């Protein structure tokens, strides 16, 4: 590997005199910055203009922010408290403004003296702290600040440009300190090795890397920032796409056993007994999968589709095709509830075809076994034997399938449900159980926009199911503003009673279980804790179930379901609910995926603002699964103007999961999405936004594929190899190889 000495230099040792060991330590521990190169690639989040002020009106709650503003007034108050009983406690309240809004800063105790002297009305400064709410007003408690005198030697030098870079910071290290550290290492940018091939860079008119680094940290104009970002976006998109293209290339070199579907086996028998015809989409996707299975290198396919679009049926047909070809198929589910649910629905769909080797089993039948961690010893022994002898063509299980004891006779296909819930090591361990690498089908019900799929699952071919099967009903969704309009909440419980009276059932979903012990550490009252006290904890299943059973849903049969229950109890609760013996199920998100009770028509989601957009969409997909229309009520106490309410309004306004996932991404940025799916991407995407930069990603993918086809080892591009090594440190390299 080509070392880049200047950029590889650790921030800790040689630069002691420059950064200081304390700063270097905070950078390593809190920002993941270890070398000069890491620091140079820690780009400003945005820029403040000297003459302009930030928008205090748009500050996000609970986030660490840096603002530039002017002190409007400052007042010192005395108060009595446990620590200062004789009214000797001191609180400094400083109001700052930027023209768009005002926010209060609070300092307590001994911390009031310095700001009281320095933060005089008219003073401009940068302030950094966490936004909280106290007495229904936004505030920053004990913010760090840096005065912007603008005439002192140091201030002029540090903020030489008119544009002040604001860096992603932490409570331990403010933006301006990071800015000073960057200034120290900026000369090293001249030695940065360029990962882009010259032909590509020149052909697209992109800046050389050293110049781009200089302009992103020390821009003189807005055009500098735009040019630098355009260049650095290409780096991120291209290096990531090269990593994925190399992995696709490597996969095509692996051998696999072709598993071609037979015309008159268990698959044909299964299709003949289906009481409905497949949708056009299901037929098309099935053909794509069958074509892949028939090739002699492993299939890597992502099957994504809306909740209820029939992915399980498509996956089952793929598994039956493999059984026909003499192999076995394994389906990996993230929870026991889901594994049991899949096992139940698959054996029901197959009927006597799932009774291979049993009396009454059909001619082409195979055995479908379930394997989970909580099974009894005898049942488990039996299942393991069926897998080892090949008696069982299909196995459905949780991560218990991955244990060393589990041996397959001839594993031909692995189906992974809800891919983002599995670690790569787990998938890899299961794939290692085949004599040759098995084919892999990954399913997800979280619709992923095309660009995200290209960035995260760029090594997988993608199939999309976007039609709902006939007979599915629409779901009406409404936001219930419980704080503004309490009578709306009362009406929500009436609606639940109406659904039950009509012979249907309902879910009530809460963010928390409610049996957690209070953490004594959190009980200490700090200024921040006082501010936080206004925010109540999320509603809990056990409390809400109790209140409903004694209050608005009195007389109905209410049960609870959550992840910490014993698996047998969970299964019993689900069976009673599926059988219609329970009217209302109060649950956590354990019901988010795969739970299928067509008679459940209503869902009330409490504290809906505490769930992500895709999670709400997933949860909502549990109702409207039969012929009766579904109803989903999103209960929130957030005010109308808040971002959380806008998010809920978006969920209520559309049932299109792909549209929602775009909204979700635009609001959250992609760190979460990429972080779930690919460890390497979270820290690698700094300026690339997967929704906005669709074209860059698509073009980078084409360029990367052509480059890797011509030079898989990247022999002629040392700069690109170095960038790949940085993106794919050893852990991520394994991650990509195993994925």
Count of helical stretches: 29
Distance between the termini: 24 Å
Look at the structure and give the mean pLDDT. 80
Taken from the alpha-carbon principal axes, the silhouette is: globular
The share of residues in extended strands comes to 15-25%
Strand order of the largest sheet: 11-12-10-13-14-9-15
Helix-residue proportion: 40-55%
- Summarize the main sheet: 7 strands, parallel
Structural class: alpha/beta
Q: What is the number of E strands?
A: 21
Uncertain runs are 152-161, 517-534, 670-683, 730-739
Plain-language structure description:
The strands form 4 sheets. This protein has a 7-stranded parallel β-sheet with strand order 11-12-10-13-14-9-15, with helices on both faces. The chain is an alpha/beta fold and 739 residues long. The longest helix has 32 residues, at 222-253. It contains 29 helices and 21 strands.
Question: Gist?
Answer:
The protein is an alpha/beta fold. The chain is built from 29 helices and 21 strands.
Q: Could you outline the blueprint of secondary structure elements for this entry?
A:
Elements: H1 5-8, H2 16-19, H3 21-31, H4 36-40, E1 46-49, E2 64-79, E3 89-97, E4 102-108, H5 113-118, E5 124-134, E6 137-141, E7 144-147, H6 153-158, E8 163-166, H7 175-185, H8 198-203, H9 209-217, H10 222-253, H11 266-273, H12 280-293, E9 300-305, H13 311-324, E10 328-332, H14 336-350, E11 367-371, H15 377-389, E12 392-397, E13 411-417, H16 424-431, E14 439-444, H17 450-456, E15 461-465, E16 475-481, H18 486-501, E17 505-509, H19 527-532, H20 541-550, E18 558-561, H21 567-578, E19 584-587, E20 600-605, H22 613-620, E21 630-636, H23 643-653, H24 657-668, H25 671-677, H26 679-684, H27 694-710, H28 718-727, H29 730-738
Parallel strand pairs: 4-6, 9-14, 9-15, 10-12, 10-13, 11-12, 13-14, 16-21, 17-19, 17-20, 18-19, 20-21
Antiparallel strand pairs: 1-8, 2-3, 2-5, 3-4, 5-6, 5-7
Helix pairs in contact: 9-10, 10-27, 10-28, 11-13, 12-13
């Amino acid at each position: 590997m080509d070392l880049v000495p200047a950029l590889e230099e650790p921030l800790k040792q040689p630069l002691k005199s420059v950064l200081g060991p304390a700063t270097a330590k905070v950078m390593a521990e809190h920002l993941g910055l270890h070398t000069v190169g890491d620091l140079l690639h820690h780009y400003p989040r945005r820029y403040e203009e000297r003459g302009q002020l930030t928008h205090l009106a748009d500050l996000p709650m609970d986030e660490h922010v840096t603002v530039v503003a002017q002190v409007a007034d400052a007042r010192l108050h005395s108060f009595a408290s446990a620590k200062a009983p004789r009214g000797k406690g001191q609180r400094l309240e400083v109001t700052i403004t930027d023209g768009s809004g005002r926010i209060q800063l609070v300092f307590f105790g001994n911390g009031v003296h310095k700001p009281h002297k320095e933060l005089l009305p008219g003073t401009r400064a940068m302030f950094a702290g966490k936004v909280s709410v106290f007495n229904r007003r936004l505030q920053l408690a004990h913010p760090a600040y840096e005065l912007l005198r603008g005439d002192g030697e140091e201030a002029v030098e540090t903020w030489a440009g008119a544009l002040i870079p604001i860096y992603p910071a932490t409570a331990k290290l403010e933006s301006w300190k990071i800015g000073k550290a960057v200034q120290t290492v900026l000369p090293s940018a001249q030695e940065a090795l360029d990962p882009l091939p010259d032909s590509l860079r020149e052909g697209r008119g992109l800046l050389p890397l050293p110049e781009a680094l200089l302009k992103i940290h020390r821009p003189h104009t807005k055009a500098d920032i735009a040019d630098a970002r355009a260049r650095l976006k290409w780096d991120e998109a291209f290096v990531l796409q090269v990593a994925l293209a190399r992995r696709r290339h490597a996969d095509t070199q692996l051998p696999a056993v072709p598993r071609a579907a037979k015309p008159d086996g268990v698959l044909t028998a299964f299709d003949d007994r289906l009481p409905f015809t497949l949708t056009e989409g299901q037929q098309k996707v099935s053909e794509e999968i069958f074509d892949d299975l028939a090739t002699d290198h492993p299939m890597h396919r992502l099957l994504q589709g809306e909740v209820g679009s029939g992915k399980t049926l498509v996956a089952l047909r793929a598994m039956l095709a493999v059984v026909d070809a003499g192999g076995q198929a394994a389906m990996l589910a993230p929870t026991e509830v889901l594994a049991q649910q899949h096992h139940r629905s698959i054996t029901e769909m197959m009927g006597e075809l799932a009774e291979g080797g049993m009396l009454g089993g059909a001619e082409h039948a195979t055995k479908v076994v379930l394997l989970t961690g909580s099974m009894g010893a005898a049942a488990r022994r039996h299942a393991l034997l069926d897998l080892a002898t090949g008696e069982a063509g299909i196995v459905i299980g949780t991560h218990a399938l991955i244990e060393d004891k589990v041996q397959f006779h001839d594993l031909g296909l692995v189906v992974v449900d809800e891919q983002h819930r599995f670690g790569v090591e787990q998938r890899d361990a299961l794939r290692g159980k085949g004599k040759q690498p098995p084919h892999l089908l990954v399913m997800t019900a979280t619709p992923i926009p095309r660009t995200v799929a290209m960035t995260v699952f760029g090594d997988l071919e993608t199939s999309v199911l976007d039609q709902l099967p006939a007979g599915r009903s629409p779901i009406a969704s409404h936001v219930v503003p419980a704080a503004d309009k309490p009578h709306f909440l009362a009406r929500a419980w009436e609606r639940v009673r109406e659904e039950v009276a009509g012979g249907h059932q309902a879910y009530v979903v809460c963010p928390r279980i409610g049996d957690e012990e209070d953490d004594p550490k959190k009980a200490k009252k700090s200024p921040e804790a006082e501010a936080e006290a206004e925010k109540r904890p999320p509603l809990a299943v056990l409390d809400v179930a109790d209140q409903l059973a004694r209050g608005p849903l009195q007389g109905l049969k209410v049960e609870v379901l959550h992840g910490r229950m014993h698996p047998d109890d969970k299964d019993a609760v689900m069976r009673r609910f599926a059988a219609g013996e329970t009217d209302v199920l109060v649950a956590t998100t354990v019901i988010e995926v795969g739970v299928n009770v067509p008679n459940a028509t209503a869902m009330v989601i409490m504290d809906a603002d505490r769930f992500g957009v895709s999670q709400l969409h997933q949860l909502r997909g549990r109702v409207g699964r039969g012929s009766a229309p579904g109803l989903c009520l999103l209960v929130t106490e957030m005010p109308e103007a808040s971002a959380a309410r806008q998010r809920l309004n978006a969920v209520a306004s559309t049932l299109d999961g792909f549209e929602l996932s775009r909204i979700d991404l635009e609001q959250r940025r992609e760190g979460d999405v990429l972080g779930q799916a690919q460890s390497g991407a979270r820290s690698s995407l700094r300026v690339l936004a997967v929704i906005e930069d669709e074209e860059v990603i698509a073009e980078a993918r084409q360029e990367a594929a052509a480059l890797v086809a011509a030079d898989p080892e990247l022999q002629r591009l040392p700069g690109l190899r170095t960038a790949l090594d940085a993106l794919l440190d050893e852990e991520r390299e394994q991650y990509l190889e195993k994925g």
